[in-house]
């Protein structure tokens, strides 16, 4: 008995977009959380992706990893990747025993609103248990608006304030002070 095989269904055309990713390990400190936000902002800007609300989500998830997921001597990982029109933000820490969940707050509460903010800004978010002792808190944003082209140097545009582009010069200015002499020695002033 012969059966006719069904023809494969037409696949919708995929946008010609590469899969982009960025990953970095950071110390679970306030400085590491701040660096996570700055690096994510710079990477999204390089990819010409909208910064808002992604930078706020990164700031909240990294801050939670630095405060609640901190284990001395262990780093947390920030991972950003874009597939199609979805930006996924992941923060992995080594406190898999403490799963995050939004906390009820009062108007005078000083803390506890981070995951509520993430839930409000992200299209989807959740927690995934990793290999012990890890957990990953993730959030996804649907990027429906096309990315705006980068502004031309010295051209006015609306958006975050940026310093005007300055082309490199022949002579570079020093970026840090010279090293101090070893203890007990001084420089001569001749």
Strand content: 15-25%
How far is the first residue's CA from the last residue's CA?
A: 104 Å
**Percent of residues in helices:** 10-25%
Note the overall shape.
Answer: globular
Q: How do the strands of the widest beta sheet line up side by side?
A: 1-2-3-5-4
Query: How would you spell out the order of helices and strands?
Result: EHHEEHEE
Give the strand tally. Answer: 5
Mean pLDDT: 78
Per DSSP, the total helix count is: 3
Radius of gyration: 23 Å
Largest pleated sheet: 5 strands, antiparallel
| Class from helix and strand fractions | alpha+beta
- Contiguous low-pLDDT stretches (5 residues minimum) are 3-13
Features:
single chain; disordered N terminus; 190 residues; 21% helix; alpha+beta; 5 strands; five-stranded antiparallel sheet
Description:
This protein has 190 residues and is an alpha+beta fold. 21% of the residues lie in helices and 19% in strands. A five-stranded antiparallel β-sheet has the order 1-2-3-5-4, with helices on one face. Helix 1 (30-46) runs antiparallel to helix 2 and helix 2 packs antiparallel against helix 3 (114-121). 18% of the residues are buried.
